[in-house]
Specification:
The complex is a heterodimer of chains A (357) and B (276). Chain A is of the alpha+beta class. Chain A is built from eight helices and 20 strands. In chain A, the strands form four sheets. In chain A, strands 6-7-8-3-9-10 form a six-stranded mixed beta sheet, with helices on both faces. A five-stranded antiparallel beta sheet of chain A has the order 13-12-11-14-20. In chain A, helix 2 packs parallel to helix 4 and helix 3 packs across helix 4. Chain B has a single domain, classed as MetI-like fold, CATH 1.10.3720.10. The chains are: A alpha+beta (357), B mainly alpha (276).
Chain lengths: 357, 276
């Protein structure tokens, strides 16, 4: 997994006055399922279009498979893009759509037919080759777009929110399908999405983007368990963010004062006494217990409760200035107005190294 | 109150129907009379003399009519071909490139549609008399008429093609590039096939406009050259003391041809929308 497939070095892109991509540096390895995750307008699609060759960066360099590609036109790049709108050619049949790239390469007819057949088989669309795109369902169109992009065997497949237009069930089905394809073909997938759950489930690694910059790169557990910024902590899943200052440190342990409360923190970043610090605590990592139990870390008053079947969300006031969101799947008969104790594993309470953004 | 209201509503309703009927009569009565009189047996166009196909027989045996028809078809075909090529190129250029003075150039491309045709016609006359003839010598009137027709047809083709081009999803062309096609291959294999219905309906529009044009044609023949298209032929006939009845037959057939062309253009647009 060490060979680099795509490398961006200090890539910047402006549209008018807006800096859409801001000194972006990223390495994507061969055979990796890599996601660019961020809210709309964070620059992820522009980054993808820079890699595909449809946008030219204002500065910085792009390397594809080790060679400089910054100024190479899109038709000469060994990457194929699956468009959000699928961009199937409406005047061509499914077969002709898939054959398009091979015909450009002027391969012999027999070989084109064979490879188109295989590609359609790969996306499970055999038998629909003679149809036109408008005669297909959204999910089928999506598969044609995939087959068309894969048939020329690019070293990297770029996917721009490819599942955005599908309904939930079809989406989940296609997620599995994409993972299967990527495993079978062993090519690099660069996947753009704003859906954090999708990114966590599918990716080997992902980059969280915000305002044109990469905030954090890592495996899904790294990103989820150790968010590097407040934005990441809040955008990926949910976090209780607590502002406080360090009282004292002993080795990797620190005691942090949050208003009138105190909490022990296990930190892998160096902390100094009196330093201001933001702590992140996942709602589902907090456990509720009777307030009298001695292992309760804090106690609080249940102010609100939202039951949704598979889980219950609680808003618990632990001090005049702090309320925590708690998510629990246990059925425990707690009701609004009750006092509860709250506990969590020491490593669940994470200091966030960067205060911005 | 309720009854009065309902009575009033009914009255307004029937007045609207009446109004519609009157407007349609106003629009189509002259054409209906024209078609009716084309079947008249009278020797004069403006007199009814009983039913007969004599006017049509005379029309199809008249050498002058045949010549005018031939001229019209040649001019219309050639100007359509040229205007379609130029108009499509203009549409692609205006829609797909960023150039300096974009807005000004766009306005200039639309202008021939809005400026009065007589102004175009007089301008062309001046151009032919003061520029073309001094530089190239005597030019065939068919060529000057052709140039005249191209000048106004280009804008119409451009408008139709450009509207379609603007609707075209840019990512289709990007997808083709992405799959390895050169810009020229993208144009040939994706853009032009998708534009074909619009190009065809632009061409039909240009053909119809050319076939029926009078002002530009009249001024472009630079007076008394004897070159006549069908509209010029009709115009010349009506100066005679007794207008011959085959004028009506000719006009009726031109109407039929225009309707057929328009129907064809609509059909193409329909087909293009379905395949989208």
């Amino acid at each position: 997994m060490d060979e680099v497939s795509i490398e961006l070095r200090e890539i910047s892109k402006r549209f008018g006055q807006t800096l859409v991509v801001d000194r972006l540096t990223l390495q994507i390895y061969k055979g990796e399922f890599f996601s660019l995750l961020g809210p709309s307008g964070c620059g992820k699609t522009t980054t993808l279009r820079i890699i595909a060759g449809f946008e030219r960066p204002d500065s910085g360099e792009l390397f594809i498979n080790g060679s400089r590609a910054t100024h190479i036109p899109p038709q000469e790049r060994d990457v194929n893009l699956v468009f959000q709108s699928y961009a199937l050619f409406p005047h061509l049949t499914v077969e002709q759509n898939v054959a398009f790239g091979l015909e450009i390469q002027k391969l012999p007819r027999a070989q084109i037919r064979e490879r188109v057949g295989k590609a359609l088989e790969l996306v499970r669309l055999s038998g629909l080759g003679a149809r036109f795109p408008h005669q297909l369902s959204g999910g089928q169109q999506q598969r044609v777009a995939l087959a068309r992009a894969l048939v020329t065997e690019p070293s990297v497949l770029l996917l721009d929110e490819p599942l955005g237009a599908l309904d939930l069930k079809l989406r989940q089905e296609m997620q599995l399908e994409l993972k299967r394809l990527q495993r079978e073909l062993k090519i690099t997938f660069l996947y753009v999405t704003h859906d954090q759950e999708e990114a966590l489930q599918m990716s080997d690694r992902l980059a969280v983007m915000h305002q044109g910059r990469v905030l954090q790169v890592g495996t899904p557990p790294e990103i989820y368990e150790r968010p590097a910024t407040r934005f990441v902590a809040d955008f990926i899943g949910e976090s209780n963010l607590l502002e406080g200052h360090v009282v004292r440190t002993v080795g990797q342990r620190a005691l942090v004062q949050i208003g009138s409360l105190q909490a022990n923190v296990l930190s892998d970043i160096p902390l100094q006494p009196h330093q201001r610090v933001t702590l992140a605590l996942r709602p589902e990592r907090i456990h509720l217990c009777p307030p009298t139990e001695s292992n309760g870390i804090w106690t609080g008053l249940v102010e609100a409760l939202f039951y949704s079947g598979k889980e219950t969300r609680y808003r618990v006031r632990v001090s005049p200035e702090v309320t925590l969101t708690v998510i629990s799947s246990a059925v425990n008969g707690i009701s609004v107005g009750e006092r509860v104790g709250l506990t969590w594993d020491l490593q669940s309470l994470r200091p966030i190294p960067e205060r911005l953004p | 109150m309720g009854r009065l209201r309902r009575g009033l509503d009914a009255l307004i309703g029937s007045m609207l129907v009446l109004d519609t009927v009157l407007v349609y009569i106003f629009l189509y009565l002259p054409i209906g009379v024209l078609i009716l009189y084309s079947f008249s047996a009278s020797r004069y166009a403006l007199v009814w003399g009983g039913f007969s196909l004599e006017a049509y027989r005379r029309l199809f045996t008249d050498r002058d009519v045949a010549l005018a028809l031939l001229n019209s078809v040649i001019v219309a075909s050639a100007s359509t071909a040229l205007a379609t090529l130029l108009g499509t190129m203009l549409a692609l250029a205006l829609e797909r490139t960023r150039i300096r003075f974009q807005q000004g150039i766009e306005v200039l491309a639309y202008l021939p549609i809005v400026i009065p045709e007589i102004v175009m016609a007089v301008g062309l006359l001046l151009f032919f008399a003061q520029v073309l003839r001094p530089v190239f010598g005597a030019v065939s009137p068919m060529l000057t008429v052709l140039i005249g027709h191209v000048t106004f047809s280009v804008s119409y083709v451009m408008v139709v093609v450009r509207a379609r081009l603007r609707d075209l999803d840019r990512s289709l062309e990007e997808a083709a590039l992405d799959l390895g096609a050169t810009p020229w291959q993208v144009l040939r294999k994706v853009t032009l096939p998708l534009l074909t219905p619009a190009i065809m309906s632009g061409a039909l529009l240009a053909f119809t406009l050319s076939l029926d044009d009078f002002y530009v044609t009249y001024f472009s023949t630079t007076g008394g050259s004897g070159f006549k298209t069908l509209p010029l032929y009709l115009y010349a006939l009506q100066w005679r003391a007794a207008v011959p009845p085959h004028v009506n037959a000719l006009a009726s057939l031109m109407l039929l041809a225009s309707l057929a062309l328009i129907a064809l253009a609509l059909l193409m647009q329909r087909k293009a929308q379905l395949s989208r």
